[in-house]
Write a structure and sequence with these properties.
Blueprint (H helix, E strand, L loop, with lengths): L3 E3 L8 E3 H15 L5 H7 L16 E4 L3 E5 H12 L10 E4 L10 H11 L1 H14 L2 E3 L6 H8 L6 E4 L13 E4 L2 H8 L4 E4 L2 E8 L8 H12 L7 E6 L8 H9 L8 E3 L4 H9 L3 H9 L14 E6 L6 E3 L7 E3 H9 L7 E6 L7 H16 L8 E3 L4 H9 L2 H8 L2 E2 L22 E5 L15 E5 L2 H10 L11 E3 L2 E3 L21 E2 L33 E9 L6 H4 L12 H4 L18 E2 L6 E2 L1 H10 L4 E5 L11 H8 L2 E6 L4 H9 L3 E5 L4 H4 L5 E5 L10 E6 L6 E6 L4 H9 L2 H10 L1
Helix pairs in contact: 3-5, 3-7, 8-9, 10-11, 13-15, 13-16, 23-24
The chain binds FE3-S4 cluster.
Protein name: Aconitate hydratase, mitochondrial
Keywords: Iron, Iron-sulfur, Lyase, Metal-binding, Mitochondrion, Transit peptide
EC number: 4.2.1.-
Amino acid sequence: FRSRARMSRLDKDAYIDYALLDTKIQQVKERLKRPLTFSEKILYGHLDNVEEADIRRGDSYLKLRPARIACQDATAQMALIQFMSAGLDSVKVPTTIHCDHLIVAKDGYATDLAKATADNEEVYKFLESVCKRYGAGFWKPGAGIIHQIVLENYAYPGGLMIGTDSHTPNAGGLGMAAIGVGGADAVDVMSGLAWELKTPKVIGVNLTGKLSEWASPKDVILRLAGELTVKGATGSIIEYFGEGVKSLSCTGMATITNMGAETGATTSMFPFTEAMGAYLEATGRSDIREASSSWRHLLRADEGAEYDRVINIDLSSLEPFINGPSTPDLAIPLTEFKQAVAKSDWDNRVSAGLIGSCTNSSFEDISRVAHLAKQAMAAGLKPQAPLYLSPGSEATRATLQDSGVLEVFEEAGAKLLSNACGPCCGSWDRQEMPKGQNNSIVTSYNRNFTGRLDSNPATKIFLASPETVIAKTFAGNLDFNPATDSIQTAAGEFRFNPPPQVDLPINGYQEADDGYVAPPPQRSNVHVDISPTSNRIQRLKPFASWNGQDYKDLTVLIKVSGKCTTDHITPAGPWFRYRGHLENISNNTLIGAVNAYNQKVNMVQNVFTGQIAGVPETARDYKQRGQQWVVIAEHNYGEGSSREHAALQPRFLNGVAIIAKSFARIHESNLKKQGMLPLTFSDPSVYDRIAASDRIDLLGLAELASGKPITMAVKPSNGTAWRTELLHTLNEEQIGYFKAGSALNLMALNDAS
Ligand code: F3S
């Protein structure tokens, strides 16, 4: 067997070692005496301590050794600022930084890129110099979206990676266990520490049949998101298996694993298939194809492996879905969508069609869409709304251009955006739609929280496959169904034919390595410059350690009603510019969260002055008074992006605990890392009893222990005090973070001792 292959064309000294993976898997199997699912093999095959690891799904914690790390520019700034404070000479695990979030979509590819390069010069220079100094790879703005670049260059079957972006699971389409984490977790791994993860449960998705007509890989995950909901897979890995897997392309599988993030899943993975081999070949990695083919028995579930839950999906009968608005799990089959539109207050005119994002920006996606656009244009039609296209990477863009695909969009009058996140992360300076105007957009993206794309709370965002998006944009109506409806033209009725299967580019992907900057051989003299007067980058000061006392007389900064994603806690869009500056970005803390008392956003009452003011202003006032505070929240608090700012900011402004009905995994872990207490009600109905003016004590902190509840004493301003129990998932190590003030503080303490 070929047991070693270079991890990527761009890493000089990093190798994939399948023989070692095999040894570790065998050791675990001997101990557990049972067959393993595919994701179990890959996770346990990367254990730091195979001999003594405690492996209980949904229960124990694993200490893992990821093989690589990827960070995007919006989260990398804070992660690298933290890494620098660890005082090491180089990153201990192959790491890459990708500039994709800060490019604002407005006028199109070249203009937007030039403007972003000028506007963010300080940030890009900072990131590039840190990469050069500490031995990480740097991908320049315009090179592509992090997950597409990872898929094209770094992902490989059987690997384990972490990324500071919640759609890191995209690499699961190439058989990798790729997990989204907060920056503080990435810093641990960069620093050479093992990474801790609660042993995930495994949800098996059995695919049978073959996609046909209008159904696409995106529809698999849109349908599954409807079934699992935004928190149904929390704490689990979604693992696909069954005959149907063989019929899917590698980038199609990546679409499915990418958007698994919307179900709360830790990650999603496909076992090794021929399509993965072909993709590796097309992207210049025949050595990995050869090695993974010869170790394919490792790269699938063992016979008889058991899942915690199995969901069956018959691809042959799967129909297209459209999910939204406002939440990605509101899945409506296209055949029922007309009715849903008729019953709603959604504007039935499509105001924009957007194709791209890390979920759907592959050569295959865009080629299939071009096929449909060509059909419509041949019938004399034009898009009825602005059409935006963003290829996933420069390699994909150049390949599409080479294959003549981009010409089709030019002819259709589409706006070609840079190879970046753009509107998907709120980096969209949308010109044609006034804020506050009710309108409907259809996108091939993955998220549709209110205000996510254009910062307009009145925009309704509908998620669909790229094929459905293009058909609706040409028709101009939201409720158009390409499978059953036709469009009136001067020559008669036009009806789309379903797009054909598109294979990989005949000559493989174009190489586009000029977007990559490798670290120099001599790094010690590289200077990393942070100006003390910068309003973009700021060195971090360590948070204060816990003073050993119970928290007393805490105020409730805000009692949040309904969904509270990281976009509500720390919105993106214009705020991206402050992602490296904790003090400045804290001015957006919780401005999108709805106050349960007045159902308004960014309007809370200051308990000292009685004044109604914004959430950040009120928090700053409390901080100035030395007043500590909590947030009260509902289910799945912190769902969505992995941004650790959502934990850092409340901590910076004197928050000490978030008390919720439940948490999203990454955010809960981020809170722990920053020394905040993520606490849940043992009785969720207690949420209703808490009032804005209540004072709260958190008692028994000196005895804080894994699995042991703490007591919350609630003191109403006029009424009898009452008590309740709060739960937490802190383990002993994480309790150490709390006591030290943060995980970084603990690392520094351990270093010093
Ligand atoms: Fe970027 Fe949107 Fe993906 S923000 S990383 S394209 S989810």
